[in-house]
Amino acid sequence: MAERKRRKLKLLAETINLDEKKATEEEESLKLQTWADLPVELLELILCHLTLEDNVRASAVCRRWHKVAVAVRVVNQSPWLMYFPKYGSLYEFYDPAERKTYSLELPELQGSRACYTKDGWLLLYRPRNHGVFFFNPFNRHMIKLPRFELTYQMVAFSDAPTSDLCVVFTIKHISPTVVAISTCRPGDSEWTTVNHQNRLPFVSSIWNKMVFCSGMFYCLSLTGWLGVYDPLLRAWSVLHVPPPRCPENFFAKNWWKGKFMAEHDGDILVIYTCNTETPIIFKLDHSEMVWEEMQTLNGVTLFASFLSSHSRTELPGAMRNIVYFSKVRFFGKRCISYSVDDRRYYPRKECHDWGEQDPFENIWIEPPRDASLN
Question: What sequence ranges are listed for the domain F-box (predicted)?
Answer without folding.
Answer: 32-83
